[in-house]
Amino acid sequence: MSLNYKKHWRTSTALCIASTVLVATAAYAAHYPGGHSDWDKRSHHNHRAHQEADRARNDHGGEHGDKDHGGKTASPIKHVIILIGENRGLDHTFGVYKPKGKGQTISNLLSKGIVNEDGTPGPNFAQAQQFSVAGQPSFYIGAPAIAKSPYNATNAMPQPNTNGTPTAQSDTGAPFKTIAEASVEKDMDPSDLDILTTGFSGLPTGVLDTRVPGAGGLNGPFPLQGEQISDDDYTGDTTHRFYQDWQQEDCSVASATKKNNSGCLNDLFPFVMATYSASNKSMANSMGFYNAQQGQARS
To answer: Among 105, 114, 115, 201, which has the minimal tally of Cβ within 10 Å of its Cβ?
Structure first.
């Protein structure tokens, strides 16, 4: 459930497969119909080219023919490669995804009953319980159980904030004020440069992210979608450090079970983010997720 301050999916190039819930109100539906931002609803310049290339491959049994791929599939699709942006994981992107194909399954927030399809807490929400840890004499990976305290009404979970989120457009970095300024980025198609001019928060740095529904009282995984926030908006930064990411996962051989052979409990995400650095305290941003069912995770 890790989360970098948000860049649009089309601009993400780094890959991260890491351990990482949608409140659809009538007001939101009117503001972002179908769960898509305004940018997502525009026609894409090479959409037709992709469709024609896909048809050509399907008509000829794939790029190299069926015999080179081994085994038959229910559709002409042989392989699906998913690119997930840096510091983002499966639940962050596909936490409430439901497979469409017969016999297809996925292990995510929805399938485990941690959240409901609309992103609200599910019957097994407690499985995503997060903890704080009392001060320890040295760095640790698997936190001692006796030192852990669950976040609750009296031990409030750190909340999502705007640390690392652009407050406004800039002349020198994304989101830029103009497309002309954004053209300094040479690795993007010119027709896509408008991506680099949108998504700023309009909020001060390092404050409660009031765009997130329920911010201030969240106590577990939460959807990054609402009337004031869409998949086009930047959100708070999170850690880019290996050992802190490992610490968030809270792994121990003693915690390994048949269903969880890694022994990782994934229960220290907000705590580590609120304590590991004197400046980069993005709190609970790593608990946020998008709703692929409503178009919040797009390619």
So the answer is: 105
CB 245 within 8 A of CB 239: yes
Q: What is the DSSP string of 2-24?
A: --PSP--GGG-------------
Which residue has tokens 């599910």? 122
d(CA 208, CA 158): 10
Dist CA 173 CA 7 (whole Å): 13
End-to-end CA distance of the chain: 19
Average pLDDT, the chain: 80
Pair 213, 231: CB distance under 8 Å: no
DSSP 54: H
Q: Where residue 282 falls among pLDDT bands split at 50, 70, 90?
A: confident
Helices vs. strands in the chain: H and E counts, helices first: 6, 4
pLDDT digits (tens, 9 = 90+) for 156-168: 999 999 998 999 9
**Region 75-93: what's the mean pLDDT?**
82
Model confidence, pTM: 0.72
The CA-atom distances, in angstroms, between 286 and each of 66, 237, 270, 283 are: 41, 9, 7, 8
| SS3 labels along 239-276 | CCCHHHHHHHHCECHHHCCCCCCCCECCCCHHHHHHHC
The string of DSSP letters for 139-174 reads: --SS--GGGEEE--SSSPPPPBB-TT---S-BSSSS
Contact 214/281 with Cβ under 8 angstroms? no
